[in-house]
Design goal:
Distance between the termini: 120 Å
Mean pLDDT: 85
Number of helices: 1
Low-confidence stretches: none
Oligomer: single chain
Strand order of the largest sheet: 3-9-8-5-6
Radius of gyration: 28 Å
Structural class: alpha+beta
Largest sheet: 5 strands, mixed
Amino acid sequence: SDLGFAEIDIRTLPENRVSRQAILTGLEMNGQRVNPSVDNPYLQKPIGNTKVLELPFDRRSRLALTFGTLDYTLPARCQFRYRLLPLEEEWMNAGKERRATYTGLAASDYQFEVQSSLDGERWNENSAVIGVRVLPPYYLTWWFLLICILTLLTATAAAILKVSQRHHQQI
C-alpha cells in the first residue's frame, strides 16, 4: 500500500443481510390508482405521509396497497411480507410481489404493516405502517339507529294516542 494500491477481496466483505425499511408507495381502489390531492376524499397527501386512510364501506370494493424499499443494492432479491391487523395475525409472504389486495373489508379499524428482507429470513423489524378505517354504512351508524328508534317511539306513541282517543269517544 506504500505504492498507492490496495487489494480488496470482495468475498471477505460482510454481506448486508437486512434490507432497508419498506415504504408504502401507492393506493388503488377498484383497480384505479388514487393520486394524492387536497380535493381527494381518500388521500390528501402521499401515502407514506398518511397516518390513516378513511374509506367508505362497499362490499364490492377492492383496495390495493403498493409498497417497495429504497434499497437499490440488490433489488431483485428484495422480498416482502405484510399483514392487516386484526384480520390477519400471521404475516402473508408476498415474495417479490409489491402489492397487497383486499376485497370487501368490513366496517372496522385496521392496521396494515409491511416488512422487507433481502433473503426471506432476516426481516427489517421496522415496518411501514398505515391505519385503514372502513366507515360503516349509513344504516349502521349511531345517528341512523337513533333516528329509527325515535321514529318507532313516535309512531308507537301516535298509535297509542289514537287508540286512546277512540276509546274515549266510545265512552
